[in-house]
Amino acid sequence: MDSEGRALQEQEEAPVILENGEVYRNPTEVKMSQIVLPCHANHRGEISVGQLLKWMDTTACLSAERHAGCPCITASVDDICFEHTIGVGQVVNITAKVNRAFNSSMEVGILVSCEDLFTDRQWRVCQAFATFVARRSEAGKVHLKPVVPRTQAEQLEHSVAAERRRMRLVHVDIMKDLLSNATLQKVDECQEHQDAVPAERTRVESVELVLPPHANHQVNTFGGQIMAWMENVATIAASRLCNAHPTLRSIDMFHFRGPSQIGDRLVLKAIVNNTFTHSMEVGVCAEAYQAGQTLRHINSAFMTFEVLDEDGKPRTLPRIRPEPVNGKRRYREAIARRKIRLDRKYIISCKQTEVPLSVPWDPSNQVYLSYNNVSALKMMAARNNWVLNSEKNKVSLYTLEENQVLCFRVETQVKVPVEQVFLLMSDLSRRQEWDRNYEQCEVITQVNEDDTLYRVVTPSVSKEGKVQDFILLASRRRPCNAGDPYVVALRSVTLPTHPSTEDYKRGEVLCAGFSIWEVSSRITKISYYNQATPEVLPYISNDIAGLSSTFYSTFRSCSQFLEENKDSLEAVASTPL
């Protein structure tokens, strides 16, 4: 078995043994395994993505219903990126489990892998996150019971699910902001290229009659079935552009706007919106009607295709000439969505160790940087293999060394209400009042209520004697549900208005911040985390080595600062983020 297969097996199988000796299994977990037959495959002998989407939706729905105890419907699906294909004769393994419940909706995580029975190889195909809503009963709206995470992986997904939900809610606003950007106000000159293909040539329209085999046990059309039909017309549209068989690489986040039932006529329309050298975006719309009724908008989706040559490399695609008015609008929107896809790929989707220490900040990627900032801190906090390094007067220093990365955590409790602690700790401009490593701290930009950009100056730790400065994005979050912590996350970013200078050594923070927990109405637990970078390590290395206890004095100063300012009206009014 190759390294990827072993990693996948560890991800899926790592058993947790309960006190009674039994192997723990998530109560919402549902698994499906299917052998890919010729009837499931396309012309290349690879599984049709539409068929895969149907299996994924079915598995996720059963997981959601296992948790809800009532019928559920697909509300939305986040971006799906297909990493590998699956051939005829290979096995598709799908695992779905509920990560978190939010009142009447819940997030279901879906992991798809492929297994070759003859070589014993396994590899990951894709991962997806779907939102399901519990259907209203005769008694009214269903209120879902909370998900109780039991393992480290479940705690991590449970915590980060709140951030993913936050991103879904602002997705439309991100598109509006990008489209208002001056650079997208004009259609790119390439539309006038002599060799450009008219978008009208790629237009596809098809109708499907929803029959009982297409519906679920609630008599609604399977969300996966609708996605499969949409993938079919999108593939035809992409083929018409390049006169070749395209490969679907990704599907953007989409929402189901309304249900479809048995007897509906489903009208599916697709057209190529734009091309980008080696890829194209196809827009698909699904509308439904009954005899004598008007069309109902069911769903819109945007799919990215490539065309591969004989060596499996992406071919250069012809340019597209958009239709007047709506075609130009779709053309511009495709550019905006590509920007969003790139931001997600390089800020969110990559592994934390692959994220550059300092990412350029601009308003268009702010939401994703904020998401990454908070999620990275939550991932670090969810680790359960922290080792107590030292303790002094109820201030504890923990370390975690993994994959050649050193992280540390400092923890203490204060007799201050949690809301006051959160407001004071999230104002970095006041940190110099208790942390001697913060010589200066200035607000560069208050982005919104939850995010602020700071410039921080710290003492010299280098032989050259230069003081360090950091450009930090501070992101704060209040609890999503009772039992969640308050969070203040920090990471480095770069700003063209604040380049590094000869007078300062520019430092970097990859992941740092505070998790603030309410112990009681008057007692709060503070946990400070930091993934040590070369610029940060000198400030804490002596403490980790046991040669000093400056961490203790710093956090005793923090406790004193919080207690002295807990009743301050300024603290209550101060919302710098």
Task: Give a verbal description of the structure.
With 577 residues, the protein is of the alpha+beta class. The protein has helices at residues 3-13, 49-68, 152-179, 223-242, 326-349, 366-382, 418-425, 541-544, 550-565, 569-573; strands spanning 30-35, 72-77, 80-81, 91-102, 105-116, 121-134, 197-198, 204-209, 247-251, 254-255, 265-276, 279-289, 296-306, 320-321, 359-360, 387-392, 395-402, 405-414, 440-446, 451-458, 467-477, 486-494, 504-506, 512-518, 524-531. The strands form four sheets. Strands 15, 16, 17, 18, 19, 20, 21, 22, 23, 24 and 25 form an eleven-stranded mixed sheet that branches. It has a six-stranded antiparallel sheet with strand order 1-4-5-6-2-10. Strands 3-9-13-12-11-8 form a six-stranded antiparallel sheet. Helix 3 (152-179) packs antiparallel against helix 6 and helix 5 runs parallel beside helix 6. The two termini are 49 Å apart. The model is unreliable at 187-191, 350-356 and 569-577 (pLDDT under 50). Its EC number is 3.1.2.2. InterPro entries: Cytosol_ACT, HOTDOG_ACOT, HotDog_dom_sf, START-like_dom_sf, START_lipid-bd_dom, Thioestr_dom. Residues 26-138, 200-311 form the HotDog ACOT-type domain. This is Acyl-coenzyme A thioesterase 11.
Computed structural class: alpha+beta
Number of strand elements:
25
Provide the helix percentage.
25-40%
Binned strand content: 25-35%
Low-confidence stretches: 187-191, 350-356, 569-577
Name the overall outline: globular
Distance between the termini: 49 Å
Helix segment count? 10
Looking at the chains present, what oligomeric state does this protein adopt? Answer: single chain
The largest β sheet comes out as: 11 strands, mixed
The average pLDDT is 87
Q: Tell me the Rg in angstroms.
A: 26 Å
